[in-house]
Design goal:
Blueprint: E1 6-9, H1 11-26, E2 31-35, H2 43-51, E3 56-59, H3 62-70, E4 77-79, H4 88-94, E5 97-100, H5 103-115, E6 120-126, H6 137-147, E7 153-160, H7 172-189, E8 195-197, H8 204-209, E9 218-221, H9 223-227, E10 245-258, E11 281-287, E12 299-301, E13 306-310, E14 315-318, E15 329-334, H10 336-344, E16 349-352
Parallel strand pairs: 1-16, 2-3, 2-9, 3-4, 4-5, 5-6, 6-7, 7-8
Antiparallel strand pairs: 1-10, 10-11, 10-15, 11-14, 12-15, 13-14
Bound molecules: pyridoxal-5'-phosphate.
Residues 35, 37, 60, 80, 161, 200-201, 220-224, 231 line the site of pyridoxal-5'-phosphate (PLP).
């Protein structure tokens, strides 16, 4: 028997979700890059995304890309975080394409590629208002001009990323401007961009609202595939599973206790002064699951119990409405932060079904 806590990863639901987004974007001629960073490049999941039709696999960490390659996953791999100078050599060796914003990094990639006797493909990320990574629009011309003269690297496209840091929505206006830039520089430099990568799981509203999606021909999707929601308002995408990946914890104590702690109140384990409502006696179940395993705020129990609170290793539930006994398992739905934290915790096992 698998030891709890564990993530239950339903491969056929993940396949359905992936197929669905590939179809939704495919109708408008946009190919999907499946983003595996939240699952740390888990090879079985990468395989599932590939068999459901993603055009390529993207990850923010070269370690995850190496993991997939070493597991003989056959795909086009894209490093979606701008590389650091110190890893340039690995990026060229293991990634087919990398997203870039800094000339000094691109020079390092070019040098590494020349040493490895290869050519490394790059996409330039453009700042369209979200203020995370991206080349300012008025610097783009100068940088493209320099990059296309470099040996060792080949410019294959432009990308943009919205709604990640500044929360800026992809709209007709900023997306049209992005397409306009792509066209402008194709004309100016007499070349064709292979990849015009227009965003992430925040681009569903934009896609549904606009017939004309401009020059965008690629989208990078992670959260929508794994969680089943778009990311601007976390709306459920019709037809997608919300429970492709769930977390299972085990009850380690279940007792009727007061709802109000007894004694003088000081700080709790995390420096907060807790406040409780007196609800009389309740059935309190403790699940052996805590902040070392998961970002607790992102958990939703799939049975009618309420989360009262948590510490490093304990999750306390009000199980009065749904009595739980020791040894019983409780299943939770996860948001993105919770999934990320479980995937990076050494204490959470994985079960594939
Ligand atoms: C994480 C990431 C994505 C995927 O975002 P989701 O919201 O998970 O779809 C796309 N592009 C970049 C640059 C990212 O860092």
């Amino acid at each position: 028997m698998i030891k709890a806590p564990y993530l239950e990863i339903n491969i056929s639901k993940l396949y359905d979700n992936t197929k669905k987004v590939v179809d939704i974007f495919g109708v408008k001629g946009i190919e999907v890059t499946g983003i595996t960073k939240v699952v740390l490049g888990e090879p079985r999941i990468a395989l599932c995304l590939i068999s459901a039709g993603v055009n390529s696999v993207g990850d923010s960490r070269i370690e995850n890309i190496i993991r997939m390659r070493e597991d003989n996953i056959n795909a086009k791999f894209i490093l979606i975080r701008t590389p650091s100078v110190s890893e340039a050599h690995y990026i060229v060796r293991y990634a087919d394409i990398s997203f870039n914003t800094e000339l000094s990094v691109i020079r390092e990639l070019a040098n590494a590629a020349i040493k490895q006797d290869t050519i490394h493909d790059i996409v330039l990320m453009v700042e369209m208002g979200d203020l995370r990574e991206g080349i300012l629009q008025h610097d783009l011309d100068k940088i493209i001009g320099k990059v296309i003269k470099m040996k060792g690297v080949r410019l294959v496209g432009l990308g943009t990323n919205l709604a990640c840091f500044g929360g800026i929505r992809p709209t007709r206006k900023n997306m049209d401007q992005f397409s306009f830039l792509a066209e402008k520089f194709e004309k100016k430099y007499n070349m064709k961009f292979r990849m015009i990568s227009g965003g992430n799981s925040a681009n569903f509203d934009w896609l549904f609202a606009n017939k004309d999606i401009g020059r965008v021909n690629n989208i990078r999707l992670g959260e929508s595939i794994f969680i089943g929601r778009e990311t601007l308002s976390r709306k459920h995408i019709e037809g997608m599973h919300l429970d492709a990946i769930t977390l299972v914890g085990e009850v380690i104590e279940s007792k009727f206790k007061d709802s109000l702690p007894e004694g003088e109140i000081g700080q709790d384990a995390f420096g907060k002064t807790p406040l409780f409502e007196d609800k009389g006696k309740m059935l309190r179940a403790i699940v052996g699951l805590g902040r070392q395993d998961v970002s607790v705020d992102g958990l939703t129990p799939l049975i009618p119990v309420d989360i009262i609170g948590s510490s490093s290793d304990h999750l306390i539930l009000d199980a009065t409405r749904f009595p739980l006994s020791v040894g019983g398992h409780v299943k939770f739905r996860l948001n993105y932060a919770a999934l990320l934290s479980c995937m990076t915790s050494p204490f959470v096992a994985r079960k594939f079904i």
